[in-house]
Amino acid sequence: AHVREYSGSTFMMTLKGFFLLAALAPWLLGSAWGEENGDLRLAGYGASSLAGRLEVAWNGDWGTVCGTRFENHAAGVACRQLGLGHAVSYSTTPAIRYGPGTGAVLLEEVICHGNESHLLRCIHSGLDTPTSCQHDSDVSIACSNVTTPYSGQVRLSRESPSQLGSPSHSNSLGRVEFYFRRQWGPLCSDGLGENKANSICRQLGYTNAASFRSVSSDGPFWIVPTTSCSTPQPCFTDCLDTLPVAMESTCPSNAIMEVQCAFNLSLADSKSSGSPDLCTRPTDPSSPEPGAVRLVDPGLVEIFLNGDWGTVCDTVFGYPEADVVCKELGYPGALRFYTDSLLGNGSGTIYTFNCSGIESQLMECSAATIASSNLQCSHDDDVGVECSPVVPPYGSLALRESAGSAGRLLIFTGEVFQPICDASFTLEDAHVACRQLGYAGASSVVGNN
To answer: What is the DSSP letter of 289?
Structure first.
């Protein structure tokens, strides 16, 4: 592939210079286009692309993460940095399955809020701080392969031909891809300079771009005007001047952008980064696609079908449907939903949907219009949704259809909240659930029977 690179030097290849370059090759691969400080990988016996012992790269070596104070929010941040879905589980005793790590225990006392895009953005004891933690407390994690991209999201893909032979564990290196109008595509490199590269890396949680380059490629491309990005921004979406209507088959250079992001601890406090719930999510209301979903302030659910926006009836609408709406909009799930048009009345056709909760778009659910169903529904029954900005930890509990401290008990299984069977569920079990929810205990249990 044709490559225009914007970091490094041009070498005149004499025989003597060839041997010099060969000697320097490992250094070049390790710094300019390779593993960067803060990169993560999943390692160990039986590890896969979704699960394994969590390791972090630092100064050319891989080390482990201590389990002290590590919990689901930190596991979720690690999964996000790896480009995966939410955290399904974590363990601080990996020797049971993946074996203990070797080398240094690099990170200890990792505490995350859950919305960080990079593990080193979380609170930790410091990478150069001596630790008493041993490898029998190394962290392992398991991540979901189900991702819910948000409009305007960027990612680094390692599918580019120019990266063949690159280190396999470099999640800070790749072809820049942009998500808009429900599809991922590479960014045309025209007009994408240092400020844009830095903004892309910051949206991904890094502090800056170590290097970037333009690589020839076939389309289609996203061509995104970014002339307003005169200085690096916390999010690449802050650089957008206008929004593309569709992917283009060609761009002027027929080249895409590749970036090597870096995490510099000395810049971490002064260089703010974007996160999924902070970055602008561009929309294009003038030309929505059929099946597009939106929330009309403060949360009325509308769907674009048959050339117009319509609403959703609350009669058969529940948390599975609410979760699908929020996932389609790029959120991990629903916090709550509202019936009886409490978040506003809409207009147009009224639709009804029946979802299992694992769908990624509302149109994947069973759908019908009120006119074609036996349901009685008007715009006084329009449904509204409030989405959750953070993925709940695996095993979280919730009370749904609740009145105060009473309600139907559900548990988060890694994808959606699911009801708990009442068979053999006792008052003692309810005491544990209520304490997990922050109450002193349970007063009664009522089964569906």
So the answer is: P
DSSP string for 195-259? HHHHHHHHHTT-SEEEEEEEEE--S-BB----TT-SS--SSGGGG-SS--SS-BS--TT-EEEEE
pLDDT at 421 over 80: yes
Q: Residue range 18-35: average pLDDT?
A: 38
Q: What is the spatial distance between Cα 330 and Cα 338, in angstroms, rounded to a whole number?
A: 20
Where does the pLDDT of residue 161 fall: very low under 50, low under 70, confident under 90, or very high at 90 and above? very low
- Residue 420: CA count within 13 A, CB half-sphere: 23
Q: Residue 120 phi/psi, 5° resolution? A: -75, -5
Residue with tokens 């117009």: 308
pLDDT, residue 403, reads 54
Residue 355's Cβ-count burial label (10 Å; 0-12, 13-18, 19+) is buried
With a cut of 80, say whether residue 437 has pLDDT above it: yes
Distance between CA atoms of residues 149 and 218, nearest Å: 24
Using the predicted structure, report yes or no on whether residue 317 has a pLDDT greater than 90.
Answer: yes
Q: Which of 347, 318, 350 is nearest to 334 (CA)?
A: 318
Work out the widest C-alpha separation in the chain, in whole angstroms.
85
* Rg over CA atoms, the chain: 24
Three-state secondary-structure class, residue 322: helix
Sequence-ordered list of residues with C-beta below 8 angstroms from that of 187, at least 6 positions apart, any chain: 176, 177, 178, 221, 222, 224, 256, 257
Residue ranges of the alpha helices (H) in 32-129?
Answer: 72-81
Pairing status of strand 308-312 against strand 350-354 = parallel
Mean pLDDT of the chain: 79
Contacts of 249 (CB under 8 A, 6+ apart): 219, 220, 221
How does pLDDT run across 325-371, given as a tens digit for each residue?
988 887 778 888 999 999 889 999 999 999 988 888 899 999 888 76
Cα 345 versus chain centre, distance: 32
Q: What's the pLDDT score for residue 375? A: 80
In Å, what is the CA distance from 226 to each residue of 192, 259, 358? 8, 17, 36
More confident residue, 397 or 27: 397
Using DSSP's 3-state secondary structure scheme, residue 88 falls into strand
Rounded CA-CA distance 238/280 in Å is 7
Q: Of 362, 260, 368, 268, which Cα lies nearest the Cα of 321?
A: 362
